[in-house]
Amino acid sequence: MAHGRLDTGYLHWRWRPRGCELPAFSPEAFLRWLRNRHLAFVGDSLARNQGESLLCLLASRSRPDLVYRDGEENKFRRWVFREHNATVSIFWSPLLVKVAEKAELAGVRHNNVFLDAFDERWMSQLGALDAVVLSVGHWFLIPGIYHDGGKVVGCHDCADLNHTETAFFGVFKEIVHRTLAEVARRHGAERKVVAFTTFSPAHFEGDWDKAGACRKKEPYKDGEKELGYTEMEMRKTVVEAVAMAAANAGPLRFAALDVTKLANLRPDGHPGPYMRNDPFAGGMDARVQNDCVHWCMPGPIDTFNEILLQTIAG
């Protein structure tokens, strides 16, 4: 709305799961749980999106102070709710493991992904955290070169390179399992919560730089929009890996935030051209970038945090 979007219907839809009630988000209840604790969101820009949604929800009851900022585009940040001694952090780690990120302006279109090296920018901080929300997926679709044991073991979308083409599904599965196993190895005796948000589908219906890339103003009806193969496989990988980790976790608690279906039904909840202020100032035919991946705030992503509250406080 702040950027000029006129319709407001997307603000009023609520997710109603079958077989249970999902209470509306209670900032008071979340802040009670968060008192004297540190919660972090780790992953790609959708992890950041979810973290910022939570901050907005909590700020309706208590003002957060930004106490730390580092990295490009605010990729590492930390806030404190001083009256609750509560901390929320966001860590940028789009594949959870170590990666030399692509730099297309410099002619590098592939991520170099090191399967046997964890991203210690967040993993080394886990000891100071009481809960962590992991959220990755979309960066695995980007061209990548995969390293393991000091060797290139494959790549994704690399016809221009002399490497073996490797399906990203297998790489995603390996990284998710390795990450949860490493968290358990380092912190299995500690009472922490490790939640993993499942894959959140995009809703592009046209070119990213043309009007109407995600034009819908209402949710899909149940059964109107089936999950694609990619979405189903990414969701399945996380749900199964979390269940396996939880079966052997001890005091460490693992949980899947299963948002894939509810997100799939919400094509109306993306910023679209309104990712930037007044996108049509140059006319309705102007070339504008559309965001059909991330979520408006307020919007559907607030439901992710309703589920998170029930998960961590339950």
Give a written overview of the molecule.
Helix 2 packs across helix 7. The protein has helices spanning 27-34, 45-59, 120-123, 168-187, 229-247, 260-264, 301-313, and strands spanning 38-43, 65-70, 76-81, 86-92, 97-100, 111-118, 131-135, 144-148, 151-156, 193-197, 253-257. 27% of the residues lie in helices and 20% in strands. With 314 residues, it is an alpha/beta fold. Strand 3 (76-81) and strand 4 (86-92) form a beta hairpin. The longest helix has 20 residues, at 168-187. The strands form two sheets. It has a seven-stranded mixed beta sheet with strand order 2-3-4-1-7-10-11, sandwiched between helices. It starts with 26 loop residues before the first helix and ends with a helix.
